[in-house]
């Protein structure tokens, strides 16, 4: 074990939040120029808490998660500022070997497309068992026994008979369960789920979300749920961080956010959900296109698409204004948004 | 898989019949009389020519000759060549040497080609990558006989590290440089194929997963990345075993190795079909069997492949 996992900052002895991302900046250096993917993201997760990170493609939500995991391709990616503290230790400053040991043991990740994320040429049981063999030095037979237990735990029917099957022999939902089994194998404190249900049928989506919620309750781990689907997060999340153009534009406890959104973007997202009581009416859509990361709009990145726009929105970058203890909105005119006047 | 193998083996029969018939037919259709020039300065007497034609059945129709050839192949009795030396003993002397040369060449291809490909693929644009790209381009653009004569002259004559020609018993140590020459083209191709495969798979999702699992870099590359990247490379190496054997003709000529290449060359110039036909047929068989083995190996390497 390394110092990060035991010693003065070991499990439970640190008083701050379990995982804190602070003012993180990530850039990609491409042939076309510098793409600013993450521009000062700050969030935190505590044991047993679920943070939903909401945003469209290119909002920086996945890049933030990949930076936490340390699986960002560098180059072209580059962390240009900020800290990621796990139990109070800035893991961005740790040597690679210590970071490697945190992966799987401390922080784990579930990916979107389990078919391509699982190795096609190894049996699923072998891939789960690898966690125990590498991190814990378990014997092959012990590790395999634990793999079967985990497959049972994520409710794969007939786990014992299927442990030697290959990923392509499973359905999409079952494959995602195997990914989850692999991620929770070592009982991590933080689980990052990057769009875990996007590639699945709606009925299977609900099962997977339910499974994640159950597993979290049993083990009291912190869950970061990355999604672009507002409907998925309502039941399971405790708090939500809405991202746009590499920034957090609104953060709030989940029910407050649904009841009274305090940022025009969040409000637009909520209004563009189809509702049964408004059947027959034209569906609302946020005008314009997501920002080009190579040429970010000046001032507030959302201002070209914003119905509340004033002149100063194009020049002054809005900070995350505190609304109440746990809420914040990065809009100069959040009061108007909350009041509903447009 | 068992049924698939049996079906594939049964498929070999018509292919073998067809190819061996074509070999027989074409060889007997070649212009010139094989016996006319065997009596020094003067033309051979008619009595000799007709006696020889009768002995080797050249006066019979082609179908009958082919039937005789099949019977001989199946019984293992290939008779004697035009000099009345048993064909089987000549083949038995030559085959082991060529097989040794070919296996050594495959080993060189695999070890050097794959290592070079992996190293250059992992650090694309780095120093090793440039060295590998340039040297493989060099090897690919040189014909085998140029590489062969060059190495023979350089290592054998100038620096005298090796003996320029291989002795009759063809010990492994003397075969290393000839095997390298024989392997050179395929080795360069193997390196490039491996490099492409590594580059392609390095950014794949399952490699990212392997990193996210907290595996050591050595394990991510050595187990997860390599296992997937080597599937096309091993298939290539397997299918090339057959062509390696026939390609040995040039290399064996340069280094004076008494394998089937040399035997085949002498038999062709002497128009001795009793040797040309069995060797060509055996080369076909080697090619077919190695292809079958590769197809079966493919299913072992990639579980997504289904045999029905």
TrEMBL record, chain A:
Q: Name one Pfam family in it.
A: ABC_tran
The Gene Ontology CC terms held by the record are: plasma membrane
Per UniProt, what is one GO molecular function of this protein?
A: ATP binding
> Where in the numbering of this chain does the ABC transporter domain appear?
19-270
Q: How does it sit in the membrane?
A: Peripheral membrane protein
Which family, according to the similarity comment?
Belongs to the ABC transporter superfamily.
PANTHER family, per database record: DIPEPTIDE TRANSPORT ATP-BINDING PROTEIN DPPD (PTHR43297:SF2), OLIGOPEPTIDE TRANSPORT ATP-BINDING PROTEIN APPD (PTHR43297)
Name the record gives this protein: ABC transporter ATP-binding protein
- What organism is this sequence from? Planotetraspora mira
- Lineage, broadest ranks: Bacteria, Bacillati, Actinomycetota, Actinomycetes, Streptosporangiales
Automatic annotation (TrEMBL), chain B:
Subcellular location per UniProt equals: Cell membrane
Q: In its keyword annotation, does this UniProt entry include Electron transport?
A: no
Lineage of the organism: Bacteria, Bacillati, Actinomycetota, Actinomycetes, Streptosporangiales
Per the record, the similarity remark reads:
Belongs to the binding-protein-dependent transport system permease family.
Its GO biological process annotations read: transmembrane transport
Q: What is its main location?
A: membrane
In Swiss-Prot or TrEMBL terms, this protein is called: ABC transporter permease
Look up keyword Transmembrane helix and say if it applies. Answer: yes
Q: Which residues form the signal peptide?
A: none
One GO CC annotation: plasma membrane
């Amino acid at each position: 074990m390394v110092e990060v996992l035991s010693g003065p900052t070991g499990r439970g002895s640190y008083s701050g939040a379990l995982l804190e991302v602070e003012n993180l900046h990530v850039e990609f250096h491409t042939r076309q120029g510098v793409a600013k993917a993450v521009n000062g993201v700050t969030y935190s997760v505590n044991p047993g808490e679920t943070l939903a990170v909401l945003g469209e493609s290119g909002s920086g939500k996945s890049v933030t998660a990949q930076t936490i995991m340390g699986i960002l391709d560098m180059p072209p990616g580059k962390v240009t500022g900020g800290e990621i503290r796990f139990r109070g230790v800035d893991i961005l400053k740790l040597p690679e070997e210590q970071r490697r040991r945190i992966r799987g043991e401390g922080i784990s990740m579930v990916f979107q497309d389990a078919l391509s994320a699982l190795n096609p040429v190894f049996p699923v049981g072998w891939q789960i068992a690898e966690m125990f063999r590498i991190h814990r030095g378990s014997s092959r037979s012990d590790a395999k026994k634990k793999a079967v237990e985990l497959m049972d735990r994520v409710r794969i029917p007939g786990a014992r008979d299927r442990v030697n099957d290959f990923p392509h022999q499973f359905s999409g939902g079952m494959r995602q369960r195997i990914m989850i089994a692999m991620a929770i194998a070592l009982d991590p404190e933080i689980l990052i789920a990057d769009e875990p249900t996007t590639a699945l049928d709606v009925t299977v989506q609900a099962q997977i979300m339910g499974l994640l919620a159950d597993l979290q309750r049993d083990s009291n781990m912190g869950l970061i749920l990355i999604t672009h689907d507002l409907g998925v997060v309502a039941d399971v999340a405790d708090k939500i961080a809405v991202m746009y153009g590499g920034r957090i534009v609104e953060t709030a406890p989940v029910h407050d956010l649904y009841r009274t959104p305090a940022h025009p973007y969040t409000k637009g997202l909520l209004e563009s959900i189809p509702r049964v009581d408004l059947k027959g009416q034209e569906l609302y859509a946020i005008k314009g296109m997501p920002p080009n990361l190579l040429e970010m709009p000046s001032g507030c990145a959302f201002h070209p698409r914003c119905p509340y726009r004033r002149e100063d929105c194009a020049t002054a970058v809005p900070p995350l204004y505190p609304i109440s203890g746990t809420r914040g909105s990065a809009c100069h005119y959040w009061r108007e948004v909350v009041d509903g006047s447009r | 898989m068992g049924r698939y193998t049996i079906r594939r083996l049964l498929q070999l029969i018509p292919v073998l019949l067809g190819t061996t018939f074509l070999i027989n037919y074409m060889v007997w259709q070649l212009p010139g009389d094989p016996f006319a020039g065997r009596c020094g300065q003067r033309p051979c007497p008619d009595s000799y020519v007709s006696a020889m034609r009768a002995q080797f059945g050249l006066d019979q129709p082609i179908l009958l000759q082919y039937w005789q050839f099949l019977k001989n192949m199946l019984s293992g009795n290939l008779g004697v060549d035009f000099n009345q030396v048993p064909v089987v003993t000549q083949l038995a002397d030559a085959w082991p040497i060529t097989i040794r040369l070919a296996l050594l060449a495959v080993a060189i291809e695999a070890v050097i080609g794959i290592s070079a490909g992996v190293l250059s693929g992992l650090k694309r644009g780095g120093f090793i990558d440039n060295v590998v790209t340039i040297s493989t381009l060099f090897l690919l653009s040189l014909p085998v006989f140029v590489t062969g004569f060059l190495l023979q002259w350089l290592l054998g004559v100038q620096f005298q590290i090796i003996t320029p020609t291989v002795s009759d018993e063809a010990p492994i140590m003397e075969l290393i440089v000839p095997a390298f020459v024989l392997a050179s083209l395929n080795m360069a191709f193997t390196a490039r194929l491996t490099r492409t495969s590594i580059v392609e798979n390095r950014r794949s999702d399952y490699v990212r997963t392997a990193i996210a699992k907290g595996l050591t870099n050595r394990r991510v590359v050595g187990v997860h990345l390599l296992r997937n990247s080597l599937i096309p490379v091993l298939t290539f190496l397997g299918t090339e075993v057959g062509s390696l054997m026939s390609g040995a003709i040039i290399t064996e000529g340069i280094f004076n190795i008494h394998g089937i290449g040399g035997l085949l060359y002498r038999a062709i110039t002497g128009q001795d079909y009793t040797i040309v036909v069995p060797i060509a047929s055996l080369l076909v068989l080697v090619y077919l069997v190695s292809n079958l083995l590769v197809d079966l190996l493919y299913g072992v390497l990639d579980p997504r492949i289904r045999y029905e």
